Amino acid sequence: MSKLKFEEKEICCDICGRGFSQEARLKQHMRIHTEEKQYTCEICGKSFLEKGNLKMHVRSHTGEKPYSCDVCGISFSQKSGLKTHIKIHTGEKPYSCVICGKSYTTKQNLTIHIRSHSGEKPYSCDVCGLSFALLSTMKNHIRTHTGEKPYSCEICGKSFLEKGNLKIHIRSHTGEKPYSCDVCGKSFTTKQNLTIHIRSHSGEKPYSCDVCGMSFAEMSIMKKHRRIHTGEKPYSCNVCGMAFALLSTMKNHVRIHTEDKQYTCEICSKSFMEKRNLKLHIRTHTGEKPHSCNVCGASFSQKSGLKTHIRIHTGEKPYSCVACGESYTTKQNLTNHIQSHTGEKPYSCDVCWASFARMESMKKHIRIHTGEKPYSCEICSKSFIESGKLTIHMQSHTGDKPYDCEVCANSFTQKSSLNRHMKMHTGEKPYCCKVCGKSFWEKNKLNKHVETHTEEN
User: Fold this and answer.
1) What is the pLDDT of residues 375-412, one digit of tens each?
2) Which of 216, 382, 398, 429 could covalently link to 222 via disulfide, CB atoms 3.0 to 4.6 Å apart?
3) What CATH number is given to the structural domain containing 284?
4) Does residue 38 lie in a domain region?
5) Where does the pLDDT of residue 7 fall: very low under 50, low under 70, confident under 90, or very high at 90 and above?
6) What Rg do the C-alpha atoms of the chain give, in angstroms?
7) What are the φ and ψ backbone dihedral angles of 67, each rounded to 5 degrees?
8) In Å, what is the CA distance from 181 to each residue of 19, 35, 119, 201, 218?
9) How far is residue 87's CA from residue 225's CA, in Å, rounded to a whole number?
10) 134 in any annotated domain
């Protein structure tokens, strides 16, 4: 097999050091340094060596596109642009890579592609030294240093580094979703989002963790997952210094310091950033539930609660995990689930520094230290840390046992109790003694058994 060689660059520019394979190209390049750019744009002040180049540049201001495609009608400012475009209809790709055989419509695209084999990155940032294969990529990168965002949305004024990002942003105003899934019909604003979504159907997980081997459908989720192993928390709060594994979690945390809670509840003095949130909170005191389900009559204090509840009847689970395909009725439940992949526990207890994946879990934990038990039984006045434990306790007064065994008709107040009971029928004994190998169907029975080995020792 013959050894393939990339085009050598032996001739260098004495002024900037850029290399060229042909002397003719070096001479053409030298004009940038030696010749005066006498043709200047009256609109933006940009100068050009040739009058023809100025004429084409002015069209970027006027929007003039005199060259039209006879097939689809699309117009171009330059004749070369039309010539390249026509190859889309003819299928012509005259420039082929000698290494992998991939073909392109333009010589420039082939040159760029070859750099993926050679690793050549001829464009360097003067500020940080990073190198790039494309001049356009290097120019976009430089804007991260200068802060320049030249592409602005005419609707909301938001600015962007790249024209492509502005184009995608505008779709948030127009509602345009040009990329549709052939399997389920769901539409997306970007081709990348469609590609990621299709993996929820195909089950493809191309990104693997090099530590534990776990696979993911998205590179970004795999990177977040790796922070379980590295312990990396790259996002820090500028106010209190608390560190976070996710940028989104850090942004939510910062609001605690920066946003003023000017709306205060007159009943319990709790404050809110928005008047609407105070109004919703007051319903927890008044018991008002104005939104009712037409199917079962269940009522809710918030419209969003009703909307989520209706999915119980319809079976709709619109939020899917791209890592494992598991679906959820709410976005919050999906967010909580994703933390099982990333291992992130952004909420820490100030007393013992135990960490939690969810804010509500951390709040419940803190009650262990404060002794607070906000949920009281109206019959016997017994108090509980969690509302769920109060619900279970109330069944001791009402005698309600909603969980029935289908084998022997025994009933239970808790689902967990039913699950434990079912192991008696199935013969399942999942808890095994590491000392003697004896198995048990309840964990507490295993714990008691282990004590017999301790006493023997």
Assistant:
1) 888 888 888 888 778 878 887 888 777 778 888 878 88
2) 216
3) 3.30.160.60
4) no
5) very low
6) 33
7) -110, 115
8) 46, 54, 35, 10, 17
9) 44
10) no
